[in-house]
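Q: Predict the bound structure with manganese (II) ion.
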Amino acid sequence: MRLTILGGGGFRVPLVYRALLADRGEGRITEVVLHDLDPARTAVIAQVLAEQAAAYPDAPAVTVTPDLDEALTGADFVFSAIRVGGLEGRAADERASLEEGVLGQETVGAGGIAYGLRTVPVAVDIARRVLAVAPGAWVINFTNPAGLVTEAMSRHLGDRVIGICDSPIGMGRRVAAAMGVDPASAWFDYAGLNHLGWLRAVRVGGHDVLPGLLEDDAALSSFEEGRLFGGEWLRAIGAVPNEYLHYYYFNRDAVTALRTAPRSRGALVLDQQRDFYARTPDSPGSALEAWETTRMARERTYMAENREAAGAGERESCDLESGGYENVALALMRAIAQDERTTLILNVRNRGALPGLDADAVVEVPCLVDANGARPVTADPLPDHALGLVISVKAVERGILEAATTGSRPAALRALATHPLVDSVTVARRLLERYETDFPQLGYLRGKADR
Ligand code: G6P
Ligand code: MN
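A: Predicted complex:
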């Protein structure tokens, strides 16, 4: 079984490889192909993987190639985990928006739109190459904004592309722990879009146990989302929102905290990782240890401004351990490759599962997964306040898709100006101009770059 990782020099690749090493099952991945445009970063990651593999005589073989077609040929699974414009691009997206007084964030608001406009054309090219040279492969999309990018790729690959995110599974684990429930025995009724979903019920033994949690302030204060949103607000909406909804529900607080921080998240992560990626084969010490130290620093500071604005304190040590990102990917691959039916919260085409959205809209809902891929499970309708937000944000995503596929600048402006967290067309207009100046990749909006 061959797994090709696009964005093979990415910082989270060792998490995926660690999960592959731990997989002792039949039909496991035996070959990993790393594809990346940056050979230096890939070499550092390959060094970490080599150290990880040292203790395993049957570790998956790792090869590296900068050639996309070569990387895709023969792949059973393709992970797409690219970052168009790099962390520098993320930092620029975030800074520009925050300087305009609106949310600057990797995937949410204006920053997420800029990132989407840069990424969709590249993701579509990848989808086309997969169709040409590896039409039987399953594509697992990690690339953010994950819902949008999965939808762009699904227009070419249909249901052979599946988007994943670690936040729903992480929330499920935290909520279950707060209630003393075994997550394996519970049904998590979670629905929405990527980074815009709500846990509406947790069914155990035929009963919804979530209302009991929402009434219990002590239990709510024991986990991240409970502390971020507070009992009063959770009771008002009768659900636990994805942590990214903090940017919507507490927008002013989050923007204030982010604007007063010394640097944006992208700039901070870039700083945190600089020494690690500057390593060479001659650098002293272990690459794996350097990676782990850097990873912990990054995890500890995740959403620090939101936690500060909410007075939520430090992250729990169990949340620093990860286990989300790589485990969703591995569980998904195993279910498909071994026909081991399981349920995972994934980003797939709606096909009628979530009322109020059309069949081709990519949504984030529980799915049944087996050798036939991922099939969404019918979900109860979202309450109006949630559906309204979901429809607004999906319309924004459709504007980005239109801009990226036709080169329409008005569609890009419309997407920016109608996002619920961008409060003025004037701001949208200035931001679009600035993003076009910062990123030559957006030249297509002025008919200047090929798409
Ligand atoms: C979570 C989200 C990802 C996102 C990441 C950002 O894992 O699910 O979609 O990319 O956080 O983390 P970072 O450390 O880059 O801010
Ligand atoms: Mn995510």
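A: The chain has 21 helices and 13 strands.
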